[in-house]
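Key idea: predict the complex, not the pieces.
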Amino acid sequence: MRTLFEKYPKEKRYTLSILQDLQKQYGYIPKDKLIELSQYMGIPLSRLYSMATFYKALSLKPKGKYIIKVCDGTACHIRSSKTILDEIENTLGIKPGETTDDGKFSLETVNCLGSCAIAPVMVINNKYYGKLTSSMVREILKEYGGADDE
Amino acid sequence: MKIIIDNIECEAQKDETLLQIARRNDIHIPTLCHNDALPGLGSCRLCVVEIVDKGRRSVVASCIYPVRNEIEVYTCSDKIKNIRRNLLMLLRGRVPNDETIKKLCKEYLVPDRIKFSGDKDEHCILCGLCVKACQELGASAISTVNRGITKKVTTPYDEPSAQCIGCGSCAYVCPTDAIKIEEKDGIRNIWNKEFQLLRCTRCGKPFATKEQLEYNREKLGEAHVKLLCESCKKAIIAEKLKDIYEKV
Ligand code: SF4
Ligand code: FES
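Result:
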Protein backbone atom coordinates (compact mmCIF):
# COMPACT_ATOMS: atom_id res chain seq x y z
CA MET A 1 0.00 0.00 0.00
CA ARG A 2 3.04 2.25 0.40
CA THR A 3 2.78 2.96 -3.31
CA LEU A 4 -0.54 4.70 -2.87
CA PHE A 5 1.20 7.44 -0.94
CA GLU A 6 4.42 7.44 -2.84
CA LYS A 7 2.70 8.55 -6.00
CA TYR A 8 2.55 11.90 -4.26
CA PRO A 9 5.42 14.10 -3.18
CA LYS A 10 5.68 14.58 0.56
CA GLU A 11 3.99 17.93 0.44
CA LYS A 12 1.18 19.09 2.63
CA ARG A 13 -1.01 20.16 -0.26
CA TYR A 14 -1.43 16.57 -1.45
CA THR A 15 -2.88 15.40 1.85
CA LEU A 16 -6.50 15.70 0.82
CA SER A 17 -5.89 13.90 -2.49
CA ILE A 18 -4.28 11.03 -0.64
CA LEU A 19 -7.15 10.86 1.83
CA GLN A 20 -9.57 10.74 -1.11
CA ASP A 21 -7.55 7.93 -2.68
CA LEU A 22 -7.67 5.97 0.56
CA GLN A 23 -11.39 6.51 0.77
CA LYS A 24 -11.81 5.20 -2.78
CA GLN A 25 -9.53 2.23 -2.26
CA TYR A 26 -11.05 0.97 1.01
CA GLY A 27 -14.47 2.60 1.05
CA TYR A 28 -13.32 4.33 4.24
CA ILE A 29 -10.12 5.48 5.87
CA PRO A 30 -8.62 2.71 7.97
CA LYS A 31 -6.93 3.79 11.18
CA ASP A 32 -3.59 2.14 10.41
CA LYS A 33 -3.46 3.93 7.04
CA LEU A 34 -4.10 7.27 8.69
CA ILE A 35 -1.24 6.61 11.12
CA GLU A 36 1.00 5.49 8.27
CA LEU A 37 0.16 8.61 6.30
CA SER A 38 0.98 10.79 9.27
CA GLN A 39 4.42 9.21 9.43
CA TYR A 40 4.97 9.42 5.67
CA MET A 41 4.00 13.09 5.45
CA GLY A 42 5.32 14.16 8.82
CA ILE A 43 1.91 15.64 9.63
CA PRO A 44 0.54 15.11 13.13
CA LEU A 45 -2.13 12.42 13.33
CA SER A 46 -4.43 14.92 15.02
CA ARG A 47 -4.32 17.15 11.91
CA LEU A 48 -5.22 14.27 9.60
CA TYR A 49 -7.97 13.12 11.93
CA SER A 50 -9.32 16.64 11.93
CA MET A 51 -9.45 16.65 8.12
CA ALA A 52 -10.90 13.16 7.88
CA THR A 53 -13.75 14.10 10.21
CA PHE A 54 -14.35 17.48 8.57
CA TYR A 55 -15.13 16.41 5.02
CA LYS A 56 -18.35 14.58 4.35
CA ALA A 57 -16.73 12.70 1.46
CA LEU A 58 -14.34 11.01 3.87
CA SER A 59 -15.44 8.37 6.31
CA LEU A 60 -13.68 6.70 9.23
CA LYS A 61 -16.11 3.84 9.39
CA PRO A 62 -16.43 1.17 6.72
CA LYS A 63 -19.25 1.99 4.34
CA GLY A 64 -21.79 -0.45 3.04
CA LYS A 65 -21.66 -2.10 -0.39
CA TYR A 66 -24.59 0.05 -1.46
CA ILE A 67 -24.55 3.68 -0.46
CA ILE A 68 -27.99 5.23 -0.41
CA LYS A 69 -28.00 8.98 -0.65
CA VAL A 70 -31.33 10.57 0.06
CA CYS A 71 -31.67 14.16 -0.98
CA ASP A 72 -32.89 16.44 1.76
CA GLY A 73 -32.44 19.69 -0.13
CA THR A 74 -35.23 22.24 -0.20
CA ALA A 75 -37.23 20.76 -3.09
CA CYS A 76 -36.97 17.18 -1.85
CA HIS A 77 -37.64 18.28 1.69
CA ILE A 78 -40.88 19.94 0.65
CA ARG A 79 -41.82 16.83 -1.32
CA SER A 80 -41.34 14.98 1.94
CA SER A 81 -37.97 13.28 1.74
CA LYS A 82 -38.66 12.50 5.39
CA THR A 83 -41.11 9.75 4.38
CA ILE A 84 -38.41 8.26 2.15
CA LEU A 85 -35.94 8.29 5.02
CA ASP A 86 -38.52 6.81 7.38
CA GLU A 87 -39.26 4.06 4.90
CA ILE A 88 -35.58 3.18 4.60
CA GLU A 89 -35.17 3.27 8.34
CA ASN A 90 -38.14 0.95 8.77
CA THR A 91 -36.96 -1.47 6.11
CA LEU A 92 -33.23 -1.56 6.80
CA GLY A 93 -33.09 -0.36 10.38
CA ILE A 94 -30.50 2.37 9.77
CA LYS A 95 -30.54 6.11 10.26
CA PRO A 96 -28.57 8.61 8.16
CA GLY A 97 -24.85 8.13 8.82
CA GLU A 98 -25.28 4.46 9.73
CA THR A 99 -24.46 1.18 8.02
CA THR A 100 -26.38 -2.09 8.29
CA ASP A 101 -24.72 -4.80 10.38
CA ASP A 102 -24.26 -7.04 7.35
CA GLY A 103 -22.27 -4.24 5.68
CA LYS A 104 -24.67 -4.10 2.77
CA PHE A 105 -26.22 -0.63 3.02
CA SER A 106 -25.15 2.79 4.21
CA LEU A 107 -27.60 5.65 4.47
CA GLU A 108 -26.66 9.27 3.97
CA THR A 109 -28.49 12.49 3.40
CA VAL A 110 -27.23 15.04 0.89
CA ASN A 111 -28.27 18.62 0.36
CA CYS A 112 -29.05 18.66 -3.34
CA LEU A 113 -28.52 16.26 -6.20
CA GLY A 114 -29.42 18.79 -8.85
CA SER A 115 -32.53 16.85 -9.82
CA CYS A 116 -35.17 18.91 -8.12
CA ALA A 117 -37.59 18.33 -11.01
CA ILE A 118 -37.98 14.70 -10.00
CA ALA A 119 -38.06 15.27 -6.24
CA PRO A 120 -37.97 13.42 -3.96
CA VAL A 121 -34.77 11.75 -5.13
CA MET A 122 -32.37 9.16 -3.88
CA VAL A 123 -29.20 7.71 -5.39
CA ILE A 124 -27.90 4.22 -4.83
CA ASN A 125 -24.29 3.84 -5.95
CA ASN A 126 -24.70 6.51 -8.64
CA LYS A 127 -28.06 5.23 -9.91
CA TYR A 128 -30.81 7.85 -9.61
CA TYR A 129 -34.36 7.16 -8.46
CA GLY A 130 -36.88 10.00 -8.71
CA LYS A 131 -40.50 10.83 -7.86
CA LEU A 132 -40.27 8.36 -5.05
CA THR A 133 -43.03 7.02 -2.87
CA SER A 134 -42.74 4.75 0.15
CA SER A 135 -43.83 1.69 -1.76
CA MET A 136 -41.36 2.41 -4.56
CA VAL A 137 -38.58 2.65 -2.01
CA ARG A 138 -39.54 -0.72 -0.61
CA GLU A 139 -39.49 -2.25 -4.10
CA ILE A 140 -36.14 -0.71 -4.97
CA LEU A 141 -34.53 -1.88 -1.75
CA LYS A 142 -35.79 -5.39 -2.47
CA GLU A 143 -33.95 -5.31 -5.78
CA TYR A 144 -30.75 -4.75 -3.86
CA GLY A 145 -31.53 -7.57 -1.51
CA GLY A 146 -32.69 -5.46 1.38
CA ALA A 147 -35.52 -6.46 3.68
CA ASP A 148 -36.11 -9.85 2.09
CA ASP A 149 -37.05 -11.07 5.53
CA GLU A 150 -40.56 -9.70 5.24
CA MET B 1 3.43 56.93 15.40
CA LYS B 2 0.59 58.01 17.67
CA ILE B 3 -2.89 56.56 17.83
CA ILE B 4 -5.83 57.63 19.96
CA ILE B 5 -7.62 54.99 21.99
CA ASP B 6 -10.72 56.15 23.86
CA ASN B 7 -9.45 59.74 23.65
CA ILE B 8 -6.09 58.80 25.15
CA GLU B 9 -3.03 59.38 23.01
CA CYS B 10 -0.88 56.23 22.79
CA GLU B 11 2.54 55.66 21.32
CA ALA B 12 2.49 52.83 18.75
CA GLN B 13 4.97 50.96 16.58
CA LYS B 14 3.98 50.00 13.06
CA ASP B 15 2.35 46.52 12.94
CA GLU B 16 1.82 46.26 16.65
CA THR B 17 -1.67 44.95 17.36
CA LEU B 18 -4.29 47.26 18.81
CA LEU B 19 -4.68 44.97 21.77
CA GLN B 20 -0.98 45.18 22.59
CA ILE B 21 -1.06 48.95 22.52
CA ALA B 22 -4.24 49.16 24.56
CA ARG B 23 -2.94 46.80 27.22
CA ARG B 24 0.33 48.71 27.50
CA ASN B 25 -1.73 51.80 28.22
CA ASP B 26 -3.97 50.07 30.75
CA ILE B 27 -7.02 50.22 28.51
CA HIS B 28 -9.11 47.13 29.07
CA ILE B 29 -10.37 45.09 26.14
CA PRO B 30 -12.00 41.72 26.91
CA THR B 31 -10.52 38.65 25.20
CA LEU B 32 -11.16 34.93 25.20
CA CYS B 33 -9.06 33.33 22.48
CA HIS B 34 -6.00 35.49 23.04
CA ASN B 35 -2.86 34.58 24.92
CA ASP B 36 0.24 36.75 24.73
CA ALA B 37 2.38 33.70 24.01
CA LEU B 38 0.01 32.43 21.30
CA PRO B 39 -1.19 35.45 19.36
CA GLY B 40 -2.98 35.49 16.05
CA LEU B 41 -6.01 33.26 16.47
CA GLY B 42 -8.77 35.87 16.22
CA SER B 43 -11.62 33.40 16.52
CA CYS B 44 -13.80 34.58 19.41
CA ARG B 45 -14.24 38.20 18.25
CA LEU B 46 -14.90 39.43 21.78
CA CYS B 47 -12.02 41.87 21.45
CA VAL B 48 -13.73 43.87 18.69
CA VAL B 49 -13.24 47.64 18.69
CA GLU B 50 -14.30 50.46 16.40
CA ILE B 51 -11.65 52.30 14.45
CA VAL B 52 -11.74 55.50 12.44
CA ASP B 53 -9.17 55.53 9.66
CA LYS B 54 -9.16 58.68 7.54
CA GLY B 55 -12.78 59.29 8.39
CA ARG B 56 -13.88 55.72 7.67
CA ARG B 57 -15.35 53.72 10.49
CA SER B 58 -15.01 49.99 10.79
CA VAL B 59 -15.11 47.23 13.36
CA VAL B 60 -11.98 45.10 13.76
CA ALA B 61 -10.70 42.37 16.08
CA SER B 62 -8.09 44.20 18.15
CA CYS B 63 -6.02 41.10 18.93
CA ILE B 64 -5.08 40.64 15.29
CA TYR B 65 -5.37 44.15 13.90
CA PRO B 66 -1.96 45.55 13.03
CA VAL B 67 -1.66 49.31 13.32
CA ARG B 68 -0.44 50.98 10.14
CA ASN B 69 -1.90 54.50 10.33
CA GLU B 70 -2.58 57.08 12.96
CA ILE B 71 -6.09 55.92 13.70
CA GLU B 72 -8.68 56.63 16.36
CA VAL B 73 -9.99 53.70 18.32
CA TYR B 74 -13.12 53.25 20.43
CA THR B 75 -13.07 50.17 22.61
CA CYS B 76 -16.40 50.57 24.32
CA SER B 77 -18.85 52.39 22.04
CA ASP B 78 -22.51 51.42 22.05
CA LYS B 79 -22.03 49.56 18.79
CA ILE B 80 -19.16 47.54 20.27
CA LYS B 81 -21.06 46.79 23.46
CA ASN B 82 -23.92 45.53 21.36
CA ILE B 83 -21.72 43.24 19.31
CA ARG B 84 -20.13 41.84 22.46
CA ARG B 85 -23.55 41.34 23.99
CA ASN B 86 -24.70 39.31 20.98
CA LEU B 87 -21.53 37.24 20.96
CA LEU B 88 -21.89 36.52 24.64
CA MET B 89 -25.51 35.57 24.23
CA LEU B 90 -24.49 32.95 21.66
CA LEU B 91 -21.62 31.73 23.81
CA ARG B 92 -23.91 31.44 26.83
CA GLY B 93 -26.24 29.39 24.67
CA ARG B 94 -23.41 26.97 24.06
CA VAL B 95 -21.95 26.85 27.57
CA PRO B 96 -24.87 27.80 29.84
CA ASN B 97 -23.07 27.02 33.08
CA ASP B 98 -19.66 28.45 32.41
CA GLU B 99 -18.46 30.95 35.00
CA THR B 100 -16.17 32.92 32.67
CA ILE B 101 -19.00 33.52 30.22
CA LYS B 102 -21.53 34.16 32.98
CA LYS B 103 -19.28 36.84 34.43
CA LEU B 104 -18.85 38.51 31.06
CA CYS B 105 -22.59 38.34 30.46
CA LYS B 106 -23.12 40.22 33.69
CA GLU B 107 -20.48 42.78 32.80
CA TYR B 108 -22.08 43.44 29.40
CA LEU B 109 -25.65 43.36 30.72
CA VAL B 110 -26.70 40.49 28.50
CA PRO B 111 -30.44 40.06 29.04
CA ASP B 112 -31.42 36.96 31.00
CA ARG B 113 -33.94 35.60 28.58
CA ILE B 114 -32.58 32.37 27.19
CA LYS B 115 -33.35 31.55 23.59
CA PHE B 116 -31.59 28.23 23.44
CA SER B 117 -29.37 26.34 25.75
CA GLY B 118 -26.71 23.71 25.17
CA ASP B 119 -25.33 20.89 27.30
CA LYS B 120 -25.14 22.05 30.91
CA ASP B 121 -21.76 20.33 31.37
CA GLU B 122 -20.19 21.90 28.31
CA HIS B 123 -17.50 24.50 28.88
CA CYS B 124 -15.66 24.54 25.56
CA ILE B 125 -16.37 27.56 23.36
CA LEU B 126 -14.32 26.08 20.48
CA CYS B 127 -11.97 29.05 20.32
CA GLY B 128 -9.05 26.80 19.32
CA LEU B 129 -6.51 28.22 21.72
CA CYS B 130 -5.69 24.81 23.22
CA VAL B 131 -5.07 23.33 19.78
CA LYS B 132 -2.68 26.16 19.05
CA ALA B 133 -0.96 25.73 22.39
CA CYS B 134 -0.48 22.02 21.76
CA GLN B 135 0.91 22.76 18.31
CA GLU B 136 3.43 25.23 19.60
CA LEU B 137 4.27 24.02 23.09
CA GLY B 138 3.15 20.43 23.16
CA ALA B 139 3.08 17.69 20.61
CA SER B 140 0.11 18.41 18.32
CA ALA B 141 -1.87 15.76 20.09
CA ILE B 142 -5.27 17.45 19.90
CA SER B 143 -7.28 19.09 17.14
CA THR B 144 -10.81 20.11 16.29
CA VAL B 145 -12.84 17.16 15.13
CA ASN B 146 -16.04 17.05 13.05
CA ARG B 147 -17.82 20.23 12.10
CA GLY B 148 -21.02 22.12 12.66
CA ILE B 149 -22.90 21.26 15.81
CA THR B 150 -20.81 18.15 16.49
CA LYS B 151 -17.47 19.97 16.35
CA LYS B 152 -15.29 19.42 19.38
CA VAL B 153 -11.69 19.37 20.52
CA THR B 154 -10.25 15.96 21.24
CA THR B 155 -7.49 13.46 20.55
CA PRO B 156 -7.68 11.26 17.43
CA TYR B 157 -10.35 8.58 17.84
CA ASP B 158 -11.05 9.95 21.35
CA GLU B 159 -8.29 7.66 22.52
CA PRO B 160 -5.29 8.36 24.76
CA SER B 161 -2.85 9.94 22.34
CA ALA B 162 0.58 8.46 21.73
CA GLN B 163 1.82 11.97 21.07
CA CYS B 164 0.49 13.71 24.19
CA ILE B 165 3.25 14.47 26.68
CA GLY B 166 0.86 15.54 29.41
CA CYS B 167 2.33 19.02 29.62
CA GLY B 168 -1.04 20.57 30.39
CA SER B 169 -0.45 23.60 28.16
CA CYS B 170 -3.89 23.10 26.63
CA ALA B 171 -5.64 23.19 30.00
CA TYR B 172 -3.49 26.11 31.11
CA VAL B 173 -4.45 28.41 28.23
CA CYS B 174 -8.14 27.51 28.07
CA PRO B 175 -10.20 30.62 28.82
CA THR B 176 -13.09 28.61 30.25
CA ASP B 177 -11.23 25.79 32.03
CA ALA B 178 -12.89 23.29 29.76
CA ILE B 179 -10.04 20.76 29.72
CA LYS B 180 -9.98 18.38 32.62
CA ILE B 181 -6.64 17.83 34.25
CA GLU B 182 -6.47 15.82 37.44
CA GLU B 183 -3.56 15.24 39.75
CA LYS B 184 -3.62 12.67 42.49
CA ASP B 185 -0.87 10.69 44.24
CA GLY B 186 1.78 11.84 41.82
CA ILE B 187 -0.28 10.88 38.75
CA ARG B 188 -1.60 13.39 36.25
CA ASN B 189 -4.61 12.47 34.15
CA ILE B 190 -5.36 14.46 31.04
CA TRP B 191 -7.16 13.45 27.82
CA ASN B 192 -7.73 9.98 29.31
CA LYS B 193 -4.03 9.33 29.63
CA GLU B 194 -2.09 8.87 32.83
CA PHE B 195 1.29 10.39 33.46
CA GLN B 196 3.70 9.81 36.29
CA LEU B 197 4.71 13.16 37.75
CA LEU B 198 8.33 13.84 38.59
CA ARG B 199 9.24 15.62 41.78
CA CYS B 200 11.24 18.79 42.00
CA THR B 201 14.65 17.88 43.45
CA ARG B 202 14.65 21.03 45.57
CA CYS B 203 11.18 21.26 47.13
CA GLY B 204 9.80 17.80 46.41
CA LYS B 205 6.66 19.08 44.72
CA PRO B 206 5.43 16.96 41.78
CA PHE B 207 5.64 19.30 38.80
CA ALA B 208 6.21 17.77 35.37
CA THR B 209 5.74 14.51 33.50
CA LYS B 210 8.55 12.22 32.40
CA GLU B 211 7.34 12.53 28.80
CA GLN B 212 7.48 16.30 29.01
CA LEU B 213 11.09 16.25 30.19
CA GLU B 214 12.12 13.78 27.53
CA TYR B 215 10.38 15.90 24.93
CA ASN B 216 12.25 18.99 26.05
CA ARG B 217 15.52 17.08 26.00
CA GLU B 218 14.95 15.79 22.50
CA LYS B 219 13.14 18.57 20.74
CA LEU B 220 14.65 21.56 22.42
CA GLY B 221 18.08 20.01 22.86
CA GLU B 222 18.18 20.88 26.52
CA ALA B 223 20.88 18.40 27.43
CA HIS B 224 20.60 18.68 31.18
CA VAL B 225 17.07 19.62 32.02
CA LYS B 226 17.24 19.97 35.79
CA LEU B 227 14.45 18.51 37.82
CA LEU B 228 13.32 21.83 39.22
CA CYS B 229 9.86 23.32 39.40
CA GLU B 230 9.25 26.87 38.21
CA SER B 231 9.22 28.48 41.64
CA CYS B 232 12.46 26.74 42.65
CA LYS B 233 14.10 27.78 39.38
CA LYS B 234 13.18 31.38 40.19
CA ALA B 235 14.35 31.02 43.78
CA ILE B 236 17.73 29.71 42.61
CA ILE B 237 18.16 32.58 40.18
CA ALA B 238 17.25 35.03 42.93
CA GLU B 239 19.85 33.46 45.21
CA LYS B 240 22.49 33.69 42.52
CA LEU B 241 21.69 37.35 41.95
CA LYS B 242 21.88 37.98 45.67
CA ASP B 243 25.34 36.36 45.74
CA ILE B 244 26.53 38.54 42.91
CA TYR B 245 25.24 41.70 44.55
CA GLU B 246 26.78 40.81 47.88
CA LYS B 247 30.14 40.22 46.24
CA VAL B 248 29.89 43.59 44.49
S1 SF4 C 1 -1.23 18.03 27.63
FE1 SF4 C 1 -1.12 16.83 25.75
S2 SF4 C 1 -2.82 17.66 24.52
FE2 SF4 C 1 -2.42 19.20 26.12
S3 SF4 C 1 -0.96 20.62 25.17
FE3 SF4 C 1 0.28 19.08 26.28
S4 SF4 C 1 0.74 17.53 24.73
FE4 SF4 C 1 -0.95 18.78 23.91
S1 FES D 1 -9.43 37.77 21.57
FE1 FES D 1 -9.47 38.71 19.63
S2 FES D 1 -10.75 37.37 18.50
FE2 FES D 1 -10.61 36.35 20.40
